[in-house]
Write a structure and sequence with these properties.
alpha/beta, Rossmann fold, 9 helices, 6 strands, about 15% strand
Length: about 240
Amino acid sequence: MKHPNHKNHQNGTGYFWTLGKHALITGASNGIGEELASHLTSVCRKLTLVARNRDGKLDQVAKRLNQIHSHRGRFKTEIQPVSLDICDTEAMSNLVHQIYEKGHEQVDIFINCASGSHVYGTLESMSYEDIEQIFDTNSKAPVFWLRELLPRMKRNKMKSSDRKRAHVVMLSSRSGERALPKLSVYAAAKGAIEKLAEAVQKEYSQYRIVFTLVNPGSINTAFTAEWDPKARTLIMQKAWLLQR
Ligand SMILES: NC(=O)c1ccc[n+]([C@@H]2O[C@H](COP(=O)([O-])OP(=O)(O)OC[C@H]3O[C@@H](n4cnc5c(N)ncnc54)[C@H](OP(=O)(O)O)[C@@H]3O)[C@@H](O)[C@H]2O)c1
């Protein structure tokens, strides 16, 4: 999301486009997703926040965001927390159906942020379950979410000032572009959604659906907290060397 001062602010594609929109964020109970939800509170009209709600964290985030608008002195964003596993295709499909067909609403911004890979190790040290879980959350689930959302998004209503109909943000990783040892499966899974985003962008540009791929380096969240600090430093050094 761009800052109001950005040059796109008046052309219906930048920050001002997000004002009053409905954003659906997966993985919104922690880390990057939670931070994005905080930024979009009092900017978007509605936020649908998805996570499994482990330890009631999603409910806590929703409660906190519900109080933000009074501090910011701006309008109140409707916050809807939804507890579901992103890999549960039936629950995902029901949610999208609830929004579009039952609620006569639309998703203007989809932020695919949920993930769960704390495995740092060589391929041969990983169990089949680890491998399946990494692919399920990082690759397969995003494919199903886009399969469900995009056909509906292409019929989203637009204001005359809007230059885009919807915006899809896919959280990948530095590992998606520059594979690192001991993150092979994670890198393969993130690489898959990069190709997915590249291809569907071409399919949906005619409908003015815009895609953004985000490739963060190591960020201090629950996702990396369980890694050995030495391994984390090593990853950062290797990533830096590979960029050169
Ligand atoms: N942090 C980094 O250094 C880093 C670097 C590069 C890329 N990334 C990417 O950035 C994204 C966010 O990472 P993060 O560091 O913010 O992670 P995080 O702090 O661990 O948060 C992960 C979020 O995803 C949710 N989640 C995990 N599995 C889920 C599932 N099966 N269904 C529904 N929700 C699920 C978690 O909530 P519940 O557990 O309650 O479901 C939580 O809200 C990920 O895609 C990650 O791969 C992160």
